[in-house]
Amino acid sequence: MEKDMATGKEIAGTGVGGGIAIGRAHLLAPHELEIQQVAIERKDVLREVARLNNAFSLVRAELDELRDRLGGQEPSEARAFLDLHRAILDDRLLADVPRELVRERLINAEWALTIQLEVVCRQFETIDDPYFRERAQDVRQVVDRVLHRLAGAGGGPVALPRTAAEGERLVLITTDLAPTDMLHLKERVKVDLAGLVTELGGPTSHAAILARGLGLPALLGAAGARGAVAEGDLVVLDADAGHLVVNPDPSQLAEYRRRLREQGEARIALKKLKGKIARTADGIAVDLYANIDLPDDARDALEAGADGIGLFRSEFLFMNRDELPSEDEQFEAYAKVARAMKGKPVTIRTLDIGADKVLNEFARDSLGMGRGKPTPESNPALGLRAIRYCLAYPELFLTQLRAILRASSVGSVRILVPMLAHVHEVEQTLAFVARAREQLTERKQKFDGRIMVGGMIEVPAAAIALPAFAERLKFLSLGTNDLIQYTLAIDRADATVAHLYDRLHPAVLELIERTLKFGAKAKLPTAVCGEMAGEIELTELFLGMGLTQFSMNPARIAQVKQRVLGISRKSAAALAARVLRETDPLKIREMLDRAQRRAAVA
Ligand code: PEP
Ligand code: MG
What we know:
eight-stranded parallel beta sheet, 17 strands
């Protein structure tokens, strides 16, 4: 939906993350972040190597010319920066290894370069010294320059996306972003990225979840955004209202600037809650856990004052790379989080690959799946995903389980199994865990013998047939993102049906409530780790349903805590009873709005 206003254009979408971003629009071409991955024939090796050599030479000349052009006035940092990029460009790891990859793996120049980029960046990112760790960003910039040359583009500074002018922030506008693209943007948030707009994508697509993880306001499913905005336009992204304002008039801009200031002040106030225990007004203690995607996110969880990690989406360790992580690499990653959390619970979800989270071609190849594009699944969200995937590749699963078990010797680690629909999947998983334990015992490696295995309740079948699952598991976690998707038959990544993705649908609420009720009765710890857990509009309802374990994006913890502190369990229970009696989602929404207004006044 798009509407022309006298003051400026307004483009509607689904707001994610909340808040306001003001910045210059940067339009990202649909495939600017995507690297062509082409398998080549042996006869084409020389051509690809020559393309690489040529692109490197052009970038060398470009950097030398920039350096020559620096006048005496330029700060010495500019010179040092160019020298550093020149040195990176000449380093054997970047200059020679991609050529070898082209020859050995028979792949095109761009692909070889990006494979090596990830290897080099990972090396940098493991360095303790923050200065050296941040140099991974320079390596990416150098490689961007080379990729630009390979694509035949002219000179000039290349950025992915472009860097904002001094003092400016960027609002990125694109068709769609894959979850891996989103990880790629992470490093730009501290520099100049203020907000994100995509034309596709539903509110709980993995891209949306990662956008929330970046702590950025985002607008998803903003149809027509790329056509309605010109590069460099001043835009205001209002994720609370769910729209983008293009070239706002001065009075609109002043109002948005005021709100942006308020937003900053509110953030500072919320930070003060960090050390406070989350307890309802009538004294019920609540655990607020963090959802994380990569080991380094544990830092955000700690900074937000999380009581532990309720969901570590381990699949992000496996994505965007050509070799699957070894047992040792996985162990290091899981142990890093376990150590960082200093005894607080760390819930590691086993690989949830499939649907919109896919492995690279070479990684799939190493599982014996064969090269080339995977056979398209007619409906990947219903296909070989999560636990189904792991059970289909026993070595992959066992390797991960051994790594998680080993990490349990350095912290309080738990195993969480995604997408359970059949009891035999739980039984097979437990048999794999037992096998992994035997293997470690044979190797005389340490693990926590009492490690708990829990299951995600995110397929309606599991929510309905709960007792059989609960009998075999030590804890449960409601994955409401998928529970909604599978209950309502709505692809969570599809913007065209996003309006039907209704988290307040009575069927969804009933499945959540029966799971929480069952968990309480069976004394089985039960959390909610879907996006709903981080929505303050729902905090009172959840407390009223008896939830005491919420797991969410670290950026949401302070706000949810503030809400918990102001709610009494008794009034929350009354609200939940009213909501659960109602069958009209509109009326449910009204009840929650009223409760929300009451809370805001209090
Ligand atoms: C969920 O489905 O609610 C969930 C937490 O898992 P993911 O979003 O990673 O599918
Ligand atoms: Mg899920």
